[in-house]
Each structure stands twice: as C-alpha cells, then as structure tokens.
Specification:
By secondary structure, this protein is an alpha+beta fold. The protein has helices at about 10-15, 25-35, 40-50, 75-80, 150-165; strands at about 85-90, 105-115, 120-130, 135-140, 145-150, 170-175. Strand 2 and strand 3 (about 120-130) form a beta hairpin. It catalyses: Thiol-dependent hydrolysis of ester, thioester, amide, peptide and isopeptide bonds formed by the C-terminal Gly of ubiquitin (a 76-residue protein attached to proteins as an intracellular targeting signal).
Length: about 180
C-alpha cells in the first residue's frame, strides 16, 4: 500500500494570513480581513494618535499600549476599515446567530478575553473571520495557518460558542459602507 503525500489545500494557498507579532493582533485582524498588507504598525500608531488629539494626557493614549507595541482599540480598527470602505457594527449577543446574514457581509472581527503569563495576566485578542471567494476562514493570527469553514453553519456555531464562553467577548460585523 503506497502512502499518499500530504498536500495543502490549494484554496488555503491563496488566503492571506498574518501571524501574531507582539500585541498587534488588531493590525493583523484588519490586514487578514482585507486580504493584504493594507496597514503597517506606523499607520495604526498614526490613527491612534489622531484619535487621541486633544487629550491633555499626551503621555497616555487609550487607543494603543504605552510602549506602542499594539493592543489597539476598536476605534483604531473602525477608522482603518473605514479608510477601505467598510463599517463595523456590534452584533447583539441577545440575538440568535441565525440573525447574522453571512451572505451579505464580508467578515467579522472578534474580540476575546485571553489569559497569559501562567493565567495571571488578562488581555484582549482580536481576530478575523473573513469571506474569501465565498468561503469563510478563521484568520486568527495565533493560528499557524488559516482554517476553512466548510459551510455557514460551522461559522455560526463558532461565533455562538465565542459569545457563550464569556460575556466579555464581542463580535463585530464588517459590511461595505453604503452611501445613505
């Protein structure tokens, strides 16, 4: 009996996926959602600085970490995606995930509470589920490679599980801006 060589899924080869660096998961989530390196660290730092304009505490910016290594606020991600024609809206966790029309959205950004440093440090982590050529992928920057969802049912189940696991977790729906 001959062994079959493992061959990566051809569809995965075409999916853009940035891996985690420092606390820049928000940057990676946006780039993964847009399927290209649309933003660099300096771009997100500039957005955070613009959002902080007028703050009398110039040494502290609530939109990123003090050391500038990431941990970007939802406001930074919102502005970044708006520059590429997208809006973010919070998914109402009281609703069934069936209320989320996955056919008309381009993806979701997920923000989860995480523990690190032997469970002593709480932090937040951003990641994207993006629709690439009609198929949803989990593009979490902590994953070694994208994970493809076989249909829309597992996407909904995954998001429902994320919300059920903690009241602190949020799902933001990414849709094209409309000229209303």
């Amino acid at each position: 009996m001959s062994a079959m060589a493992w061959r990566p899924d051809d569809a995965l080869l075409a999916v853009y996926h940035e891996r985690q660096v420092y606390m820049r998961c928000g940057l990676h989530a946006v780039n993964n959602l847009l399927q290209r390196k649309a933003f660099e660290t300096d771009d997100f730092a500039a957005i955070a600085q613009d959002l902080n304009a007028g703050n009398s505490f110039t040494w502290w910016n609530p939109h990123q970490t003090l050391l500038g290594i990431g941990n970007y606020s939802v406001d930074v991600l919102t502005v970044a995606l708006a520059k590429h024609g997208y809006t973010l809206s919070f998914f109402d966790r009281r609703k069934s995930m069936d209320a989320l029309d996955l056919d008309v959205i381009d993806g979701v950004l997920v923000n989860v509470m995480t523990r690190s440093w032997m469970g002593m440090w709480q932090s937040r982590h951003w990641f994207a589920l993006a629709k690439v050529e009609g198929t949803f992928y989990n593009l979490d920057s902590k994953l070694p490679r994208p994970t493809r969802f076989e249909s829309l049912v597992p996407v909904r189940d995954f998001l429902q599980a994320v919300l059920a696991s903690s009241q602190d977790n949020t799902v933001l729906v990414v849709t094209p801006q409309t000229n209303a």
